[in-house]
Amino acid sequence: MKQDFHGGVGQVAGGDINNYGVNISLVNNDKAEVRGLVSAQRKELHELRAKCEELGADPRDVWRRVHAQLGVTSISEITSEQFVQARSVMQARLEFLQEKADIRRLVGKVLRAVAEKDAKTEMNNFCELSFGRTQLQNLQKSQLQQTLEFVQGFQPMTPTPTPTTVPVVETGAVSISEFLAVHKQNAAILFCLGVLLGGIFF
Fold first, then answer.
1. Is there a contact between 93 and 62 (Cβ–Cβ < 8 Å)?
2. Calpha distance 140→146 (Å, rounded)
């Protein structure tokens, strides 16, 4: 049994159906149109990538992280809806790089302060007791800040000077001027005694 229809068709059961003049659309009209990044969004992502590059990151590595997170192969495939996620991936990378740069700067400051105060042993003891490790590169930023504060506040012990004794040189004869210079009080007493005795006997 063969049925031919021209125009709209309701429900039909069984047989061959030839429908003329009816267009069937397979496009889902409920699905939103996919839009790529707008120029402002592209610019912001490129600025974040440039900041990462300034801190020593390979720009290709930054983009690879974004592509892997979003499941795309290039920036042109990133949709406008994915922009927030792409930006958060780049910001997380930038914060990581800034943390590493801060750590390098703090390590340099600690090493300079240690060299100025000759306090390597004291610094190692402080780090060992406080953090359980002495390698500065393995410390976190907050731990390095504590170490720098300790080293800057460290006061090296100044050795107490040992009293120096003047060696006594024994000579056979002492002149009167030397005797008077060394023994002024004794000379004054002897002089007064001599005047008194001279007054009594003469």
1. yes
2. 10
- Distance of alpha carbon 187 from alpha carbon 175, whole angstroms: 13
Q: Which residue has the tokens 């707008």?
A: 38
Mean pLDDT by 10 residues, the chain (202 residues): 59 56 53 79 93 92 92 90 93 94 92 90 91 89 92 76 59 66 74 75 68
CB contact at 8 A, 134 and 124 = yes
Q: What tokens were used for 151?
A: 């080293």
C-beta of residue 20 within 8 angstroms of C-beta of residue 6: yes
Amino acid in position 78: I
CA atoms of 161 and 114, how far apart (whole Å): 25
Q: How far is CA 77 from the centre of its chain?
A: 35
Q: Is 117 exposed, middle or buried (0-12, 13-18, 19+ CB in 10 A)?
A: middle
